[in-house]
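User: Design a sequence. Structure:
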């Protein structure tokens, strides 16, 4: 019996609160509905007072609850960037420990799809020397950039994609959270599609229970669908 090849994607964004966790949960649910094994992991989370709620939600979405509190991942109480939280006396961010733990989890995860969600935007400072894109580059995982369909998103999104390109990080797509599937010529999504050479997709769940349905059309353009073995 053939097994899925390992498909990996890092879910980052233009900033905090743009829908990264909703998208990651949706992708996990849609993949599991198609029969794929999924590992959904958030290596870095702040604002854990006391629980890492995003990490717990991802772990529940892939039915691996142990991933939320795995030793070696970074959890901080203050709802700040990891570096800012550290400077205010919170749990210090340890880049090599987080990186090696994340690598170990992915290396030992079941074959299937591996989804890793970042914290905040692409250049969130983790400590004095590292940001989110340093973690992505070290993991060698392509990214999807999540952006909210709001005023100001054009500059935020183009900046995030350009930062990825400058660091040599592959961007598979931009996902506009809350964007209409049927956009007019002047919409954020339409304009970004004309400026970027990657797919600009819409993610429009109606509510928390609608995430998998809304994410299902994104699986193919994000290259997360199961590949058929060569005859």
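Assistant: Done.
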């Amino acid at each position: 019996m053939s097994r899925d090849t390992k498909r990996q994607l890092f879910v980052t964004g233009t900033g905090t609160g743009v829908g990264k966790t909703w998208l990651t949960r949706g992708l996990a649910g849609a993949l599991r509905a198609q029969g794929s094994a999924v590992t959904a992991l958030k290596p870095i989370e702040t604002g854990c007072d006391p629980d890492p709620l995003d990490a717990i939600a991802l772990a529940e979405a892939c039915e691996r609850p142990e991933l939320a509190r795995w030793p070696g991942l970074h959890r901080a109480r203050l709802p700040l960037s990891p570096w800012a939280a550290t400077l205010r006396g919170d749990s210090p961010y340890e880049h090599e420990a987080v990186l090696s733990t994340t690598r170990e989890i992915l290396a030992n995860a079941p074959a299937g799809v591996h989804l890793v969600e970042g914290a905040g935007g692409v250049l969130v400072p983790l400590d004095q020397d590292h940001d989110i894109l340093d973690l992505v580059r070290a993991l060698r995982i392509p990214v999807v950039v999540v952006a909210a369909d709001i005023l100001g998103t054009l500059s935020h999104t183009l900046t995030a994609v350009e930062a990825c390109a400058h660091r040599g990080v592959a961007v598979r797509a931009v996902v506009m959270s809350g964007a209409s599937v049927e956009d007019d010529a002047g919409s954020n999504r339409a304009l970004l599609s004309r400026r970027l050479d990657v797919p600009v997709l819409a993610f429009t769940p109606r509510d928390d229970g609608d995430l998998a349905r809304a994410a299902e059309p994104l699986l193919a353009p994000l290259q997360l669908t199961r590949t058929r073995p060569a005859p």
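The beta strands are 7-13, 38-41, 44-45, 74-75, 113-117, 143-148, 171-177, 200-203. The mean pLDDT is 93.
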